[in-house]
Amino acid sequence: MDEKMLEKLSKYSVLYAEDEAGIRQNVAEMLSLFFKEVYLAKDGMEAYELFVEKSPDLVITDIKMPILDGIELTKKIREQDSKAQILILSAYTEVDYMLAAVELSLVRYIVKPITETKLVDALNKFLESKESSGMIEFHDGWFYDTHKKQIIHEDQVFELTKKEVKFLELIFERDSVITYEEIERELWEDEYMSLNALRLMMKNLRKKLPKGSLRNIQSVGYKL
Predict the structure, then answer these.
(1) Which of 18, 139, 177, 207 could be cross-linked to 24 through a Cys-Cys bond (beta carbons 3.0 to 4.6 Å apart)?
(2) How far is residue 149's CA from residue 52's CA, in Å, rounded to a whole number?
(3) Hey, what long-range contacts does 215-219 have (CB within 8 A, 24 or more apart)?
(4) Which of 174, 181, 139, 144 is nearest to 159 (CA)?
(5) How far is the C-alpha of 74 from the C-alpha of 104, rounded, in Å?
(6) pLDDT tens track for 13-63
(7) Domains of the chain
(8) Tens digits of per-residue pLDDT, 121-146?
(9) Are 57 and 13 in contact (CB under 8 A)?
(10) Ramachandran category for residue 221: left, alpha or beta (phi over 0 → left; psi -120 to 50 → alpha)
(11) CB under 8 Å to 36, separation ≥6 — which residues?
């Protein structure tokens, strides 16, 4: 798995449901290397309750579990969130299971044993799905809509100026400090960027972002 993929995954949370304690612990340790949060469930019902409480970005579930199996769990989650990203793991290759899984619009259906190649492929598919949706979650509960060029938080929608859009997309792309020189070149283009104009833009942008999330790195630039 390359560094760029690891960096992207580190922004997301995952819920993993598996009834066998040994397997659950082993896979959880592996997932903790990739994701910012890993929630564990020993059966389908516990997984569903955690999904409702934690709203994870990805659900990985075994198909054969007590109380609710993976298919039933997925159906319940779909009732709650039709766009939830779900990955099913199974030792089964029977047609009935495969057909039931296909109808649920999964990220992947992986037949055990889980190999690094299978997992990386599935996680890459998850990232592609997230990115194609046009929604970037840059802070807990805060999203940037790449299609509508808006900041969204719960029921609030913040409209952005042309320069604010350019700045945010630059900072999301780089995921690092954006220097004053880069800001002047990319946002002001051939115009002169005064210090007052920059400060005013950042002051207005901060009103549309989570408190304290936009930091000024003295004598260098800005970081989200």
Answers:
(1) 18
(2) 28
(3) 217/177
(4) 144
(5) 7
(6) 999 999 999 989 998 998 999 999 999 999 999 999 999 999 898 999 998
(7) 3-133 (3.40.50.2300), 136-223 (1.10.10.10)
(8) 889 988 888 777 777 888 888 889 88
(9) yes
(10) left
(11) 10, 11, 12, 13
Type of residue found at 111: V
Asked whether the beta carbons of 1 and 120 are under 8 A apart, the reply is yes
Q: What letter does residue 194 receive in the DSSP assignment? A: -
Give me 2's structure tokens: 């390359």
Tokens of 25: 């612990």
Residue 70, amino acid: G
Enumerate long-range contacts of 142-148, CB under 8 Å, 24 or more apart. 142/209, 142/210, 142/213, 144/168, 144/172
The Cα–Cα gap between 182 and 163 comes to 13
pLDDT at 99: 58
- pLDDT for 34-44, tens place per residue? 999 999 999 99
